[in-house]
Structure formats: structure tokens, C-alpha cells
Design a protein that fits this description.
about 35% helix; alpha/beta; 3-stranded mixed sheet; 7-stranded mixed sheet; about 280 residues; binds S-adenosylmethionine; 9 helices; 2 domains; 10 strands; about 20% strand; Rossmann fold
């Protein structure tokens, strides 16, 4: 019902007001779930899940990719950038052992609050932080720019890092800077799995042919966005730009990249393109 209301007001209410209303609905949802005892342990209220894109089950798929494609072990130190409401953290609680450690940060306070409340008390080796980074879609009042944010961890801390559906909300300077930060906080030999909407000759052609699952604007330099008003709502970025930025950050890319179906590609690996970076040992 909340979602259909949101859809109905979309054309007439400015996006910033809609974000505020969504935040209020989230808060109401949290209160309602608590009052009615409706939420399952280990799964956030539906309002919070929808606020980070829905499809809770995707977490299990990605845990498999972390293990099979990146060799994640149960005793490793893991960073989840843009952890949302723990879609990846919750399945990871079943996999990481007591010798393993998980750190996540996100820019939406309600996301971090839920993770801290629901996960950390039972799994104290899972910690969550809030970062007040500006993003027109997720945190329009944020005070720090993404391309100036220093991850709050020491150099060479993590064996493995991941960003699922996060680079798809960053602008190019933020993407380049986050790759530098990943290169800094990964240990030598560390791996990073990240999802993107990558612009290639193939995805550009599919978009031009109207096959893309999102309506995307014409290319503007190295990106295409869904909305010019709120570019961070959905960003596709040139693969060459990402490869160059990774190289400057001291990271290599595992080839072949596993391309996704977001642009209408068939067959595809996942919805978004999956890229694995490595920091040389
Ligand atoms: C589509 S959601 C994905 C959340 C989570 N990674 C997942 O897979 O469920 C995008 C997330 O990126 C976060 N985000 C946006 N900009 C960010 C930034 N600059 N740094 C860290 N997180 C960011 C948002 O707050 C949101 O939780």
C-alpha cells in the first residue's frame, strides 16, 4: 500500500520531498514492526528492504560468488561498502567464523541503525558505521563528498571487500576515489567484488535499441544516468574509465568480466555486471 501511494504521487511531488516522505515511512515501518512483532529475526522490515532496491534473496547468490569467485574464507577480514540493510551481512553471519571479521558502512542512518540493532549484538565481530556522505538519491543532506571521503580503516586491513549495487549510485570522481581507497585498505593479495552497470559497445547498442531495463539518458562523457534530476538514482559508467581508474589505484581486473542483464543482455550472469579486482601480493 505504501509503495502504491509512493508511485501515485511520483509525477507531481519533487524527488527531495519524496525522499523525506520515504524516510518518514521507514521510521513508521520500524516502529510498526516493533509494535506488532512482525519482522522476522535476521530480516529487516520490508520498507527498509525496498529503500535499498528490494530482492533480499540476492544475498545468498552473492555469498556464493564471494566464495566461489573470490575464494572468501571463514576466517578473513571483510569490508562491505554501502552495506544497506545487511542484505549481504545477514548471509555472511552464517559463513564467517569467530576468527573472521566484518566491517560495513553506509550513508543512510536507518540502514546502519537496523544492522547495529539486529546483527552486532549476536555477532560482535560484525560492525557497522554511518558515513554522512552526500548523495542526491540516498542522503541529500550529507556533508561529505564521496570523492573526498577517506574510508575509516587503516591501510592493508581487509582480505576481501565488496560493493553490491553501490558503484551504480556514484559519480565518476567518486568511483575513481573509492577504487583508490579500496587499493589502500586491501591487504596485498586482497580481492574486491563490485557490481556496475558498465558501458561497452554492446551495452550502449542495447540501450540505444531500447532493450535496457532502465530508461537511460544519452551518454554524457563516461556515464549515462536514468534521471538528470537525480543522477545518483542509477548510473552506468564506461568500462574503460573503470579499468583506467583501477590501474591508477594499483588494482588488476580478473578477465573475463561477468556481464549482467541490466541492459537487456541475454544470457547474463547476474542483473548487474560483476567485476573482480585484485591487489597484487
Ligand atoms: C541499492 S543499495 C545496495 C545496498 C547493499 N549494498 C545491498 O546490496 O543490499 C545502494 C546503497 O549504497 C549506499 N550508498 C550510496 N552512496 C554511497 C557512498 N558514497 N558510500 C557508501 N554507500 C553509499 C546507499 O545508502 C544504499 O544503501
Amino acid at each position: 500500500m505504501m509503495r502504491s501511494l509512493t508511485t501515485a504521487v511520483r509525477p507531481i511531488v519533487p524527488r527531495s520531498l519524496r525522499r523525506g516522505a520515504r524516510d518518514l515511512l521507514n521510521r513508521f515501518g520500524i516502529w510498526w514492526d516493533r509494535a506488532t512483532g512482525r519482522s522476522e529475526p535476521g530480516q529487516p522490515p520490508e520498507e527498509l528492504i525496498q529503500g535499498t532496491g528490494g530482492a533480499w534473496w540476492v544475498g545468498d547468490n552473492y555469498l556464493r560468488h564471494f566464495r566461489e569467485l573470490c575464494g572468501l574464507r571463514a576466517d578473513e577480514t571483510v569490508l562491505d561498502v554501502g552495506c544497506g540493510v545487511g542484505r549481504m551481512a545477514v548471509p555472511l553471519t552464517e559463513y564467517l567464523g569467530p576468527a573472521g571479521r566484518y566491517e560495513g558502512f553506509d550513508i543512510v542512518p536507518a540502514n546502519v541503525r537496523w544492522c547495529r540493532r539486529a546483527i552486532t549484538p549476536r555477532w560482535p565481530n560484525f560492525r557497522f558505521r554511518h558515513a554522512d556522505i552526500f548523495n542526491r538519491e540516498y542522503n541529500p543532506l550529507g556533508r561529505v563528498r564521496e570523492h573526498q571521503y577517506r574510508f575509516p580503516y587503516a591501510d592493508h586491513t581487509f582480505d576481501f571487500a565488496f560493493l553490491t549495487s553501490v558503484f551504480t549510485h556514484l559519480m565518476p570522481p567518486g568511483t575513481a576515489h573509492y577504487l583508490v581507497e579500496l587499493g589502500r585498505v586491501l591487504k596485498p593479495g586482497g580481492r574486491c567484488l563490485a557490481t556496475f552497470n558498465l558501458l561497452t559497445d554492446e551495452s550502449d547498442a542495447l540501450i540505444e535499441a531500447g532493450k535496457c531495463k532502465h530508461v537511460m539518458q544519452p551518454r554524457d562523457g563516461v556515464i549515462r544516468v536514468h534521471s538528470r534530476e537525480v543522477p545518483e538514482a542509477c548510473v552506468a559508467i564506461d568500462e574503460g574509465f573503470v579499468a583506467e581508474a583501477a590501474e591508477k589505484a594499483g588494482l588488476t581486473i580478473d578477465r573475463p568480466i561477468r556481464y549482467g542483464s541490466w541492459c537487456g543482455r541475454e544470457p547474463a550472469f547476474e542483473f548487474q555486471d560483476v567485476v573482480i579486482f585484485r591487489k597484487p601480493a
